[in-house]
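Q: Hi! First time doing this. I have a protein sequence and I read that you can turn it into a structure. Is that right? Here it is:
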Amino acid sequence: MSYRPFLLICAVLLISTGSFSSETKFKDFTTNLVLPVNVTGVEKIHLLFVSPDRFKNHQSPEEFYKALSVKKSALIEYIPKEENITHWSKIITVDAYIDLGMDSETMLRRHIENIQNNTLKHQVIAKKIETNPEYKKVSFAIQYQLNPNSSEVLFMHYFSGPYDCVGVQMTQKYDHWLSASDTEKEAKKIESFLSKYMQLNSTYQFNKSSRNKDS
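A: Yes, that's right. Below is the predicted 3D structure, encoded as structure tokens:
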């Protein structure tokens, strides 16, 4: 069975069975995403993300899933409803790399290198790598400056299994460079905010695995 249609089938099944219904924080949403982290074994692990109700998505979920099915990688961005993609105060980005063998640590290194090479200055606030039997998780927070009159604080979580890597990150703008202690406080606020709209979900499948590279 091809893995690409499996991704879409999986999303439909998880949404239709009410994966969010047991969590109060998921009761009000306009957009939700279901993305594989590790679906190779009996335990199927997915990242669930719900759009905050005061945010709007720049790309549609349909466009996002279509890009995944064709290119195996895609992103979708969310900004406050009263703002636009050119002028925003905060932005959430969900991106996915499906069936590419991408590792979450590799993604983290790419983000760090990009920030180092394209900012006036930066300050790493937190970096954590957790390795679990079924997946790897990286968490990262950084402040950086693109121009002298403002700064941005970025917090991210990335998860990866043997084939797939998915992540959620949020960036918030400030009108000045923050102290290390203030940046840490702001990064924790961002992490707390994101935690209300994302979670890992496990389901179990005891029949033949849906991913079969030889069929």
